[in-house]
């Protein structure tokens, strides 16, 4: 059981690291780029950043689902062990 709990904690740590990294990358996004007259290189840079943010969002979402489902499974197993 200790290994299973350690794995659950490891998933949480990875989720936290990816989430913080996503926030740091997202801080460089310029929300007003579409309102001003800017160069094509800046637009391309913002599009690349948007693609990276979408990938990071997908990773965070998948890790969050794994974390919750695995946590519920661990909790269910503990309840089952306590009742049997």
Q: How would you characterize the overall build of this protein?
A:
This protein has 84 residues and is mostly helical. The protein has one domain (2-83). It is 82% helix and 0% strand. It is built from two helices and no strands. The two termini are 16 Å apart. The model has no long low-confidence stretch (mean pLDDT 89).
Which consecutive residue ranges, at least 5 long each, have pLDDT under 50? none
Oligomer: single chain
Largest sheet: none
Count of DSSP-assigned helices: 2
- Overall pLDDT confidence: 89
- The amount of beta strand, in percent, is under 5%
Q: How many separate domains make up the residues?
A: 1
Which structural class matches the secondary elements?
mainly alpha
Distance between the termini: 16 Å
Cα gyration radius (Å): 19 Å
Number of strands: 0
Helix-strand sequence:
HH
Q: What best-fitting shape do the alpha-carbon axes yield? A: rod-shaped
Helix content: over 70%
Main attributes of the structure:
84 residues; mainly alpha; 2 helices; 82% helix
């Amino acid at each position: 059981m200790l290994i299973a709990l350690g794995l659950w904690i490891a998933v949480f740590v990875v989720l936290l690291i990816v989430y913080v990294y996503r926030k740091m990358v997202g801080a460089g996004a310029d929300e007003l780029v579409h309102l001003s007259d800017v160069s094509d290189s800046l637009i391309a840079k913002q599009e690349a950043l948007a693609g990276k943010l979408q990938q990071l969002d997908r990773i965070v979402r998948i890790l969050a689902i794994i974390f919750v489902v695995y946590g519920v499974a661990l909790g269910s197993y503990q309840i089952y062990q306590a009742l049997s």
